[in-house]
Structure formats: structure tokens, C-alpha cells
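Lab notebook, design round three. We kept the backbone fixed and only want residue identities now. Task for the bench partner: fill in a sequence for the structure below.
Input C-alpha cells:
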């Protein structure tokens, strides 16, 4: 086995492993990781000892996968041997990565929620900055271990679960099932917990009455948090869901630290610590921080780099809060007029029979009208299409009311917990019965 000193590990990549060793010294005998499925526990010192005994994989890039201790061990081995880490979802094929600059320590693959997936290259210092911003802004504590049920490969899971463990000593209880009964049993292995999840999971746990009683910090990200859900949980349990907004390209952007439900569902919170926000001339949110990625890979983009990221999100900044007004790329063109699908969804979600919805545009058979608005809906009960149309007509201009309605049993998210307009648009257009 090669000694660490003998490996041509680059100083930039070595920063991560050096910080990990410091964390081990500070928390040697404390709980670091509990793999629930395997019922295996590691203290920080034991985890470090296992990594020190490991061999180097003969590859420049390693690809951790899954929600288990194997993922954590793979990341640490990569850091130890100066390899690039590129997390992948289960069954996701490794991308072709060659001639990566020596300054790059980490590569993310985006969620493709608005189109084709991209790869994003990070320096070690940029990962470390994101983790520090999250820990400081959210007040993550070692006394409240993270309960890990979300994808570790997704930027959200990696930044909120993996990096706080390895760079800040926040213990992690990992489980590969989000079933309410499993979550409840796993949460009970520690006195108090922090639980980062996505809205779809919060809804499941809430409806099952299974939100852990020892939960001290509840975080929701990965998709917009419906205000009715936030209010329902608060009214029934007194638990505040803290909305977290971020992007793969720059990590955390905004966080709602308030103790009560937001007054406006468009509000995603205040800027994260050490993150500066502004709005471009076209209304797009601009993020500046030390956590912004180095570049896209392999092709660069003027929207990302040199500490700045121009998002596709339309935003408004007022009174220290961030309000999202839709995505520039999602706007629907109806006879030359633009409408944000989020504006329609926000109103539609107010109807008591609507459980969830997603709005998108599809090509119109009349080219002069550009696009048709489609509403994909799941209901708490059967509701006539005409009733929903009338409900919207009382609150929106007629041209913004969907012409096409698609009722489905559930709006399935992708494996990263996101509702992808691109994916659902594709499903709609490919329906056997057509439009």
C-alpha cells in the first residue's frame, strides 16, 4: 500500500483530507457514522483507522454511489489518495472524465431538472466554503446528528450530510429507506436529530403521523416547499420546516431561519452566510460567494466562474429576503405573452381538492400561439376539470388558465427528489392517447 506522503496528491485535493484528520483529532471517540441497514457504528477514530489501512484504487476519478457507509468510505479514500470524487446516483453510468485540471478536486453531475445534465468542477476550497456556510447558517450541531435519507450523490445531500460529517464532525445516521416506520426507528438511535429532506417525503411522513418526536431541526430543499404543507405541519405539530434553496453550481443560496411559516410561498429565505445576491437586468438571480464552482466541464460558460453564478431563476430581493418568480427557461409563451408556471401552480394549490400539481408548456398546433399550457394534477379527491378551470378563472387572466389537463395518481419525483418539468413534458407528449 502506498504511503500518503508518496502519493502525488495535489495540495488542493489534500486540503480536504487534512481537514478530515483535524476533525478526527477533535472527536476521536465520538459517534461519526451509523449505517442503519447494516447496524454498523463507527467512531471518528475507527473510521479514520479503516481509511488509513485501505489501498488506492487505480483510477484518477472515483464514483461513490448509494446511501450507505460505502459512499462515505469511498469519498475518504479519494481524499486520502488525491483522487477526484464524482458522486453518482445508483445505476447512473460514470461520465467520461479526462484531462481534468490538477486544481479540481470534485465533479458534480447536475439533476437535469430543466434539461440535459451537466458536469460541474470544484476546487477543494469551494466545497469547504459551502459546508462552512451551511453549518453556520443553519446552526448544525454535533449534538443533533443528521438523519440521512436523501441522495448522497445529489448536491443537497452531499453538502448537507457528507461534508458536515467529514469537515465539521456532524454525526450521520444513514438509512436507505424513507418508509415512515423505518425513519422513526432510525431516528431513535440518538437523543436528538436534524433531518434534511424533500417536500415529497415531508408530506408522506406528515400524512402518516410519523415525523420523529426527537426532531430538533427540519430542513426542506430539492424542490419548492408548498406553503400549505408547511402550515399544516406547523399547526399540527408545532414543527417549523426550514426552506433551503441552493443550486449544484454554487451550493447554498438562501435559508428560511424564521420560527414560523413563511407569509409568502415565493419567499425562500434570507441569503446564506457569506453569500452575496443581486438581480441581473433581466431579473435573474446572481450568486457570488467562495462556494461557487470553478466551471462547467468540459465546456465553460459565461454564467459560471470567478466566484459568480448567473442562475436561470427569476428573483426579487426585498427586506433582506429572496422571492423566486419562476425560471426564465420555464416561462410559457402564449401568443407572445409570457407566464411563469409557478404563478399558476401557486393558485391551483389553494384548491382544497388539489394535492400537488405541475404546470408546463407544450407546442401548440396553432403556430401563431406558440405554446399551450398544461396542468398535471394529483387530487386528494376526484375533482372535475371544469371546476378547476373556474377556480383559476376567478383568480387569473383567462389566457393563463391551462387548456390541457392531465390527472395522474402521483407526481413522481426523480431520484434526487425533484419534479422535472422537462421529464413530465416529455411524458405528456409521449402519452399513447396523445393530447
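Proposed sequence:
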Amino acid at each position: 500500500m502506498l504511503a500518503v506522503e508518496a502519493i502525488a496528491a495535489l495540495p488542493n485535493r489534500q486540503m480536504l483530507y487534512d481537514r478530515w484528520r483535524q476533525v478526527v483529532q477533535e472527536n476521536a471517540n465520538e459517534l461519526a457514522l451509523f449505517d442503519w441497514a447494516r447496524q454498523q457504528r463507527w467512531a471518528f477514530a475507527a473510521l479514520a483507522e479503516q481509511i488509513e489501512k485501505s489501498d488506492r484504487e487505480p483510477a484518477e476519478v472515483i464514483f461513490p454511489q448509494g446511501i450507505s457507509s460505502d459512499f462515505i468510505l469511498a469519498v475518504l479514500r479519494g481524499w486520502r489518495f488525491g483522487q477526484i470524487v464524482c458522486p453518482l446516483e445508483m445505476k447512473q453510468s460514470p461520465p467520461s472524465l479526462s484531462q481534468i485540471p490538477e486544481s479540481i478536486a470534485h465533479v458534480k453531475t447536475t439533476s437535469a431538472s430543466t434539461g440535459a445534465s451537466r458536469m460541474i468542477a470544484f476546487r477543494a476550497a469551494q466545497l469547504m466554503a459551502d459546508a462552512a456556510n451551511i453549518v453556520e447558517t443553519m446552526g448544525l450541531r454535533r449534538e443533533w446528528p443528521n438523519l440521512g435519507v436523501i441522495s448522497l450523490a445529489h448536491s443537497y445531500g452531499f453538502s448537507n450530510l457528507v461534508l458536515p460529517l467529514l469537515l465539521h464532525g456532524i454525526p450521520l445516521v444513514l438509512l436507505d429507506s424513507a418508509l415512515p416506520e423505518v425513519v422513526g426507528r432510525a431516528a431513535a438511535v440518538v437523543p436528538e436529530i436534524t433531518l434534511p429532506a424533500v417536500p415529497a417525503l415531508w408530506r408522506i411522513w406528515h400524512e402518516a403521523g410519523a415525523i420523529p418526536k426527537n426532531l430538533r431541526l427540519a430542513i426542506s430543499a430539492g424542490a419548492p416547499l408548498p406553503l400549505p404543507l408547511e402550515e399544516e405541519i406547523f399547526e399540527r405539530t408545532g414543527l417549523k420546516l426550514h426552506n433551503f434553496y441552493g443550486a449544484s453550481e454554487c451550493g447554498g443560496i438562501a435559508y428560511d431561519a424564521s420560527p414560523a411559516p413563511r407569509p409568502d410561498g415565493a419567499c425562500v429565505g434570507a441569503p446564506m452566510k457569506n453569500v452575496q445576491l443581486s438581480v441581473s437586468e433581466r431579473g435573474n438571480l446572481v450568486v457570488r460567494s467562495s462556494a461557487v464552482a470553478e466551471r462547467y466541464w468540459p465546456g465553460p460558460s459565461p454564467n459560471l466562474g470567478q466566484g459568480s453564478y448567473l442562475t436561470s431563476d427569476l428573483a426579487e430581493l426585498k427586506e433582506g429576503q429572496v422571492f423566486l418568480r419562476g425560471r426564465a427557461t420555464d416561462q410559457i409563451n402564449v401568443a407572445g405573452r409570457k407566464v411563469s408556471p409557478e404563478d399558476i401552480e401557486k393558485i391551483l394549490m389553494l384548491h382544497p381538492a388539489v394535492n400537488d400539481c405541475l404546470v408546463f408548456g407544450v407546442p401548440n398546433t396553432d403556430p401563431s400561439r406558440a405554446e399551450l399550457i398544461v396542468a398535471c394534477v394529483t387530487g386528494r379527491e376526484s375533482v372535475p376539470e371544469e371546476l378547476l378551470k373556474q377556480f383559476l378563472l376567478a383568480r387569473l387572466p383567462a389566457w393563463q388558465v391551462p387548456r390541457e389537463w392531465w390527472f395522474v395518481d402521483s407526481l413522481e419525483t426523480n431520484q434526487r427528489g425533484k419534479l422535472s418539468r422537462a421529464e413530465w413534458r416529455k411524458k405528456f407528449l409521449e402519452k399513447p392517447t396523445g393530447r
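Keep this in mind before ordering anything: The first helix runs from residue 11 to 26.
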